Amino acid sequence: MQPLRTLELLLKSERLANRSHLQYYSRAMSSTKTIRLGKSGLQVTRIGFGGIPIQRLNQQQSIRVLQRALEGGLNWIDTAYDYGNSEDRVGKAIKKYSRSDVLVFTKGTGRDPKTLREQIELSLLRLQTEYIDLYQFHLVSDREKWQTMQDNGTFDLLREYRDKGKIRHIGASAHTREAALAVIEHPEIEVLQYPFNFIVEEEGLELIGAARKRDIGFIAMKPFGGGALEDASACIRFLLSVPDIVTDPGFEHIEEVDEVLYLWKEGAPLSTDNHRTIERLRKSLGTRFCRRCGYCSPCPHGVQIITLMTMENLMQRFPVDRLSEEWIAGAGTSVENCIECGECEEKCPYKLPIIEEIRRGADTLARALQPIN
Known about the structure:
Largest sheet: 8 strands, parallel
CATH architecture of the largest domain: Alpha-Beta Barrel
Structural class: alpha/beta
Radius of gyration: 20 Å
Oligomer: single chain
Number of strands: 10
CATH topology of the largest domain: TIM Barrel
Number of helices: 17
Order of helices and strands: HHEEEHEHEHEHHEHEHEHEHHHHHHH
């Protein structure tokens, strides 16, 4: 997240011109705004804390950023087993608060009971908590894998943890329409986390509507498009204009936390400038922006298309030393399998130049890895 509008610029608006900055901000911060997160019944603030960017900070910095958000009024944090040191830092940051005052959400990628059990136990240890408020199946990829997880006892394992009180509620995250629709058909799924912003408005609204019919809470991930959308004012105001959903932007700097807190507490509608920004970004990103819908995948030749298409955003979100991990570095080398058959481009609903973009993504990663190698 790289906000273009700072808190100071927002405070220059005509509506606030004659108000004291500190008086206004203090009064706004004292208000409580929560909504019910679907049938989970959890009362959550419209904005939560996304746990990816704090991996890039040292421990002290990450704790400061997290605590600034919590003390500013946010009441939930979303992290994951696979987010490097994120869970550990969340655990350290929330120790000073009453556990009942902070809702902790995390996720696991285990696709069999043994693996998922190991992930849950380590998450509980890292988070220094006796229970997790919302545990999500992470990155459900398609209907077939989702069914396998139900058949092989993986879902039963979460029921076991829920019955013991170590997990309070069950949800799932998905990046494709197919997977999301499959997930919300399950009667025990209480929350869906899915990419949603003004670039992917149409498909997101479809899934929000489908989730709402089943009383499933909706968390809008990727509010800044994985880093491609830089105007915090336009992004946050757009999401707050959609009823009954919440979002979890990632934060790396205190200033980012303050800006989003201000936008949330202010509760202003999209401005004329916001609408102009949205239209400009839709036009400029329309031919190159990967929405991570997954229609292009899987590649029959093993090319990791989505990872390569979003490589620049990944490099902004993860520290340099993580770029050599297999799931990133392996994606880079997978481009060698591309025979330029064009099947992915035919499937892409946005008609993106995928062959060109995956090669650009691989080249970008190769240059970044040179200092490491």
